[in-house]
Write a structure and sequence with these properties.
The chain is an all-alpha fold. It is built from eleven helices and two strands; from the N terminus they run αααααααββαααα. It has a domain of 126 residues: Biosynthetic peptidoglycan transglycosylase-like (Penicillin binding protein transpeptidase fold), CATH 1.10.3810.10.
Length: 252
């Protein structure tokens, strides 16, 4: 005999359960966004004590090395060297003071470069994954490091964009740059501009010269690598380029 289809009465409990699950997931997602929104709103007046990235690095270093150095000290926006602000903007995001947090053209160009790199890797049959080139603005980098994990998924990238727009709406550019410069990594266990200036130059981040600031800006894409090669020819040449671009950066 052919199997009998479940009656409408039997299907109703299943639909109710599925509906409750969907509503629960949506409520949890909404609660998470509200949590992020309140955290960012609080940052308008309260300096963040640590970031998600810093906490993950703390755990990683503790497991790998046991005892390790950790350096970070907050400096207010006006105490940070204008040379460093200009150098980081010139190097990392020269449209920072004009865009709304996302540079769509830069993301598109980065996607195209990644596709080309992947194709070249396939043609060489190297088996090595291509180096991923990003198109992130300073605000996007801050959103990622402040509140998100380091995994690379479409869902995490989408959340990064939501947080980026929250940061841009709730904080002004000065505050975004201030939080970024005080928390960004400049080496293993070296976080923020003041720690970096003391680590590499034995001086405060308020006293950095244009060239010193440019050299620090060069390190940001890969600080752990350049920490081991601070006097490399690449760092020196790239710093000269950034020092030249700094003159075009107007601070608010």
């Amino acid at each position: 005999m052919p199997a009998r289809a479940p009656s409408p009465a039997r299907r109703m409990p299943v639909l109710r359960i599925a509906g409750r699950i969907v509503l629960g997931v949506l409520a949890a997602a909404l609660a998470l966004q509200l949590f992020f929104l309140l955290r960012i709103a609080l940052m308008a007046v309260v300096d963040p004590q640590s970031t998600t990235f810093q906490r993950s690095e703390f755990v990683r270093l503790a497991r790998a090395e046991g005892e390790f150095g950790w350096s970070q000290r907050w400096l207010d926006y006006d105490a940070l060297s204008d040379n460093l602000k200009r150098a980081v903007v010139a190097s990392e995001d020269d449209g920072f003071f004009e865009h709304n947090g996302v540079e769509w053209d830069a993301i598109e160009r980065a996607w195209e470069r990644n596709q080309q790199a992947e194709q070249r890797a396939l043609e060489r049959h190297s088996g090595r994954p291509p180096r991923i080139v990003g198109g992130s603005t300073i605000t996007q980098q801050l959103a990622k490091n402040l509140l998100l994990s380091g995994e690379r998924t479409l869902a995490r990238k989408g959340q990064e964009l939501v947080l980026t727009f929250m940061l841009e709406k709730l904080l002004d550019k000065r505050r975004i740059l201030e939080i970024y410069l005080n928390n960004v990594e400049w080496g293993a266990g070296v976080f923020g501009a003041e720690a970096a200036a003391q680590h590499y130059y034995r001086k405060s981040a308020s006293q950095l010269t244009a060239y010193e600031a440019a050299r620090l800006a060069v390190m940001l894409p890969n600080p752990k690598r350049f920490e081991k090669l601070p006097n490399s020819r690449y760092v020196a040449g790239r710093a000269q380029t950034i020092a030249g671009r700094m003159r075009a950066v107007t601070l608010p």
